[in-house]
């Protein structure tokens, strides 16, 4: 019996079912959450040598993790061209850019793309967390709003930073985005120029739609996902015996 190679160990950690593999993947999820939290918090403060060094260290960790995933792919080049890999490459580049360029505002937009990695967290939880399966729709709706708010705030910051004295930091942009999304409109921060007003219109229209969707998801009765074998209706009451659409008898499994 030959000794396991490094690639075999990596494959077992990423795709295996052992306790070690499960904890390794949960560690990756924790790393993703920590990285996103760092991007959000660091975007609200002025750059400092400590933050730049943290950027560099994080870029190294992200590069190692990306290289590990590419080494396990059956078609490494195709994997490199996947959206998730491209996002990781852009984020890594944005973390290294301040060492050779000024900390340009658009880098904040690129780093906020790391929020899309949160959907990978959901995919892992969907497989291993029963509580998540019961509340998946609500959690996904909340995540959609969080991703939308922070990415859009980064865009507001880029558009308004140099032309609007009311938007000096990312926190100002986040504050304006939230007031526009909720249609509160305090008026202490207002967009300037054509593009600023167009962005504000998009924020308000999307905000109304997103919050209505979130409220519907949170307050509608609990449903289970069980495709009807006859008509295909997916959502049913947990104790449903017949499909509400076609009336066929259902056999919905439950934990009891």
What can you tell me about this protein's structure?
There is one protein chain. With 256 residues, the protein is mainly α. The protein folds into three domains: 1-131; 135-220, Orthogonal Bundle (Helix Hairpins), CATH 1.10.287; 225-256. Helices cover 64% and strands 2% of the residues. The protein is built from eleven helices and two strands. It has a two-stranded antiparallel sheet. Helix 6 (106-112) packs antiparallel against helix 9 and helix 9 (136-160) packs across helix 10 (170-181). The radius of gyration is 22 Å and the shape is flat.
Strand order of the largest sheet: 1-2
Gyration radius, to the nearest Å?
22 Å
Low-confidence stretches: none
Secondary structure tally: strands: 2
Instruction: Assign the structural class, choosing from mainly alpha, mainly beta, alpha/beta, alpha+beta, or little secondary structure.
Output: mainly alpha
Per DSSP, the total helix count is 11
Oligomeric state of shown chains: single chain
Which series of helices and strands comes N to C?
A: HHHHHHHHHHHEE
The residue-averaged pLDDT reads 77
Fraction of residues in helices? 55-70%
Report strand %: under 5%
Cα separation of the termini: 44 Å
Bulk shape: flat
Largest sheet: 2 strands, antiparallel
Number of domains: 3
